[in-house]
Design brief:
- With 197 residues, this protein is an alpha+beta fold.
- Strands 1, 2, 3, 4, 5, 6 and 7 form a seven-stranded antiparallel sheet that branches.
- Helix content is 14%, strand content 30%.
- The longest helix is centred in the middle third of the chain and has 17 residues.
- It has one domain.
């Protein structure tokens, strides 16, 4: 990297068009704030010392398509001293992320779907892949992208965007299978090699 020659510097980009649907990977930038009574452990949450608001500071990387490797940053609300709406919006977003990542219809209330909408902690969200709707908003320095909505299997474009690597397009979350039992030892002449038995 040279501060005299900028031919190899990255190009600046315009914002991703409003309403673009893309498969993304979400990572949480740890803020070091824990509130064990709320289930916020591992240092994932961030607390704004001046407002008292708590949130997840998230980075979303577009995984495929025209905007692959582009990044979007958004906050997921956990708590605001001003009221419950901030936390409710954050919970709704996380629920839709889980629905999208795990291939669950938002209308599915089976026990299996309900189990898939539970997490053991914020670490379960760090690295999760889902289909996002990318929006444009005005920022302090002009237009910027944000993500506040995840697309679930009910959307007509979900399967094509998510592809075969994510979600269960069959409409339900499939928990990890139990390990298969070890095959029984074949009976026969013990002098024969195992492949010939």
């Amino acid at each position: 990297m040279s501060w005299n020659n900028f031919n190899d510097a990255e190009d600046q980009y315009d914002v991703i068009p409003n309403g673009t649907l893309a498969k993304v990977r979400m990572t949480i930038r740890p803020g070091g704030f824990d509130e064990p009574n709320q289930g916020w452990t591992g240092g994932y949450a961030t607390r704004n010392p001046s407002t008292g608001a708590c949130y997840l500071d998230c980075e979303f990387v577009v995984l495929e398509g025209q905007f692959a490797r582009r990044k979007v940053w958004s906050l997921v609300g956990l708590h605001s001293p001003k009221g419950e709406k901030y936390a409710q919006m954050g919970r709704a977003f996380i629920k839709s992320v889980l629905n999208s990542a795990r291939g669950i219809s938002h209308k599915d209330n089976t026990p299996q779907a309900q189990a898939a909408r539970q997490i053991s902690g914020f670490q379960d969200l760090d690295g999760i892949e889902f289909v996002a709707k990318i929006e444009v908003e005005d920022g302090d320095r002009g237009e910027k992208n944000r993500i506040q909505k995840a697309i679930t299997p009910d959307h007509k474009d979900y399967a094509a965007i998510m592809g075969s690597t994510g979600g269960n397009s069959g409409g339900g979350f499939t928990p990890p299978a139990a390990p298969a039992p070890a095959p029984s030892r074949p009976q026969g002449n013990s002098n024969r090699p195992s492949w010939a038995q």
